[in-house]
Amino acid sequence: MSIARWLQDRPVGLEKAYRATAALIRWMEPVLRRIGFDRLDGLFEWGERVLKIPLFDCQMCGMCNLRGTGMTCPMSCPKNLRNGPCGGVRQNGKCEVNPEMDCVWALAWKRSAQMQTYGDRILQTHPPVDRSLEGSSAWLNMLDGRDEKMPEGWQHGGAGQTLISPDQIRVLRHE
Question: What is the pTM of this model?
């Protein structure tokens, strides 16, 4: 088992690291804005590429949703599905497209159950990927609100809504 997989299967530590990083970046936001996000994007993008690709198989979509998917990159799904599994998950939890690969969404569901702060975010609908943000810094896009921007027609389409109730979650998780 790789160290990345070992860490992903224990998302509580990754969740804490994410919360600390998000707090630091939000604290630095006034300075970052003065410098200019356009000027900083290359540096931030490089840092994300160096850390997130080996650790999460990040696809650099610019709209990181690791906190909402059990610290599992949904874009590493061969079908790039951002809001849940395709319905072709095999009985053994493997991907229908790549039978040697664990289904990204089966892993995301399992891992999100371990997360205390962001675990319930897996139940929310997230906007589709804005392909114009690919290769840009997800952290800077988060500060600017571009990572949660709803495309035309989605304004009343349910993005951000919880898909199932907390009671249904407990039943699904056998609590």
Answer: 0.81
